[in-house]
Write a structure and sequence with these properties.
Blueprint (H helix, E strand, L loop, with lengths): L1 H6 L4 H23 L9 E5 L6 H13 L5 E5 L4 H9 L7 E4 L12 E17 L15 E2 L6 H12 L9 E2 L3 H10 L4 E5 L5 H8 L3 E3 L5 H7 L3 E6 L15 E13 L4 H15 L23 H9 L3 H5 L2 H57 L5 H17 L7 H23 L1
Parallel strand pairs: 1-2, 1-3, 5-6, 5-7
Antiparallel strand pairs: 3-10, 4-7, 4-8, 4-10, 9-10
Helix pairs in contact: 2-12, 3-9, 12-13, 12-14, 13-14
Length: about 425
């Protein structure tokens, strides 16, 4: 009864010794696959923008509203401008991972840890001044009280480049560093003679200055030359009357310079978040305007920094397939699981295919081992039977039979047990037959 009970069950040892290597292989495969799985994206992005009343902050707020649909929190931090934004991006302790940066300021050599997500809009450079005389060259501002923007701003950087090109950096102390809003107020009140402004035409400051009595917009007659000398600047004409046809603003075709604002990110920004940001940028910037065509932005062309691989893929084919039709977090989870599960499936299929074969081999091998002992005994009987050893032969058969009975053989392999017992009986009968002669 004991032997029969044992034979009805699979041996725990068989299961363990058979499955343990398979489990180990699966664990190793899981660990290897996990090394290639992107960590889950954080649910907060910190973005450095610009002045509180500036275009960068305005666009940042629009981004914030759009990415919230993906359950992403976009935290905005105002700044003095593009240079401070770049400084924050390069400082890993700042927490800032993305920013808007004025064109022409950043380079791969100076900021190797940053990448561009594309250019997002054209930023005109406006030079406003007071006076009845029409000015069309920056050299005309010599000796005037000119505000060129605060330290750390992209405006100041661009103004200094243009002033230096005109030999007007001496004395540098003559230039004021007022924020754009304060500079506009000072110009309208007569406390400064000219101001540089980099802002969209829709900005409140630009609109005020365009309509302010006694304030003129400079028509840069050498805009084409500046564009040739500085590749990040492009000449562009603001046609007469396009700001306000009723009041004919501007009063004549006006040549301006524009730079392309870049959406810049740290190289370790999660790829899934890049797609979310670019999707928001596309919704914000793809409309037509006075300085851009519909669909012109965002763009992967003419970036100051190397374009992110993820951004390049976005401009080629848009958001990933799953993110187009599923909520963001569900799509990201499925993407991560696919990367994890595909290698596991590739390992599991052959493992589970061969596992039953290995288990069968282990069960059968114990009985086949006894067949070897039985065959050896039978050969001894056939070649040199000794009547004096009959009891020894029979005892040896009993030991073989007992060893087989003690083995744990599942019920599905019972035929092996019964066949072996039959063969044992054949050899036992042969010994009895030889003994009787």
């Amino acid at each position: 009864m004991i032997n029969k009970s044992r034979n009805r069950r699979s041996s725990p040892r068989d299961l363990v010794t058979t499955t343990a290597p398979a489990v180990l292989i699966v664990i190793v495969a899981f660990w290897v696959a996990y090394q290639f799985v992107e960590p889950a994206p954080p649910n907060t992005i910190v973005m450095s923008t610009g002045a509180e009343d500036g275009a960068y902050q305005t666009f940042g707020k629009k981004y914030r509203d759009l990415v919230s649909d993906s359950r992403i929190t976009l935290e905005l931090r105002t700044s003095a401008g593009s240079l401070e934004n770049l400084s924050r991006l390069t400082d890993s302790g700042s927490g800032v991972s993305v920013a808007l940066v004025q064109g022409g300021i950043a380079s791969a050599e100076a900021y190797p840890g940053l990448q561009s997500l594309g250019t997002v809009f054209n930023e005109p450079l406006w030079v406003f001044y007071r006076g009845s005389r029409v000015l069309d060259r920056l050299t005309s501002l010599k000796g005037m009280r000119v505000s060129i923007g605060p330290e750390g701003s992209g405006l100041r950087f661009l103004a200094m480049v243009l002033l230096e090109a005109n030999g007007m950096l001496e004395p540098a102390s003559g230039y004021l560093d007022l924020p754009t809003g304060e500079a506009a107020d000072a110009l309208m009140s007569g406390n400064v003679d000219a101001v540089f402004v980099v802002a969209a035409v829709e900005s409140e400051t630009v609109q005020r200055l365009l309509r302010a009595p006694g304030v003129r917009l400079m028509d840069l007659d050498r805009a084409e030359g500046y564009g040739r000398k500085f590749p990040y600047l492009s000449p562009m004409v603001l046609p007469q009357g396009t700001v306000d046809f009723g009041r004919n603003i501007p009063e004549r075709d006006t040549r301006l310079l524009v730079s392309r604002a870049n959406l810049v990110a740290r190289s370790d920004l999660h790829p899934a978040l890049i797609y979310v940001l670019l999707d928001a940028a596309e919704q914000v910037h793809n409309r037509s305007g006075l300085f851009q065509k519909a669909g012109e932005f965002p763009s992967g062309k003419d970036t100051d920094l190397p374009l992110s691989d993820v951004a390049r893929q976005f401009y080629k084919s848009g958001r990933p397939f799953l993110q187009r039709y599923l909520p963001f977090w569900i799509a990201v989870f499925i993407d991560r699981m696919v990367v994890l599960l595909l290698p596991l499936v590739a390992v599991l299929l052959p493992v589970f295919r061969f596992l039953p074969m290995i288990y069968t081999w282990r069960v059968r091998s114990r009985i086949f081992r006894r067949y070897g002992e039985l065959r050896y005994l039978e050969q001894e009987i056939d070649t040199g039977f000794d009547r004096e050893k009959v009891s020894e032969y029979l005892e040896q058969l009993d030991r073989i039979e007992e060893a087989v009975n003690r083995s744990h053989t599942p019920v599905t392999y019972s035929d092996l047990m019964y066949n072996f017992r039959l063969h044992l009986q054949i050899v036992r009968d042969k010994i009895r037959a030889r003994e009787s002669f």
